[in-house]
Amino acid sequence: MDGCKFDHEPVNEEDLLAKGYRKYHGEGIDIYYNKDICAHIGNCVRGNPEIFEVGRRPWIIPDNGSVENASYVVDTCPSGALKYVVKK
Description:
The protein has helices at 13-18, 43-47, 67-75; strands at residues 5-6, 9-10, 22-24, 29-33, 82-86. By secondary structure, the chain is of the alpha+beta class. It has one domain (5-86): 2-Layer Sandwich (Alpha-Beta Plaits). The protein starts with a strand and ends with a strand.
């Protein structure tokens, strides 16, 4: 799944928030999560437990990994519950 797109169109913060995603702010990348569509497969936690840790609040800390790794891990989310916007 492409974590920076919906139906082949780039995602943006306004649309993600309107669709029920919650924003987790980082310096180089913002990660968005929608609990209502999460299938709890665990690719995120297995992909980088420094960024994604369910026992911590906040459970997503984008700056605990590189932008490249964070986007790669989000792209492995099969449900689309995770999305991201890379900052320029």
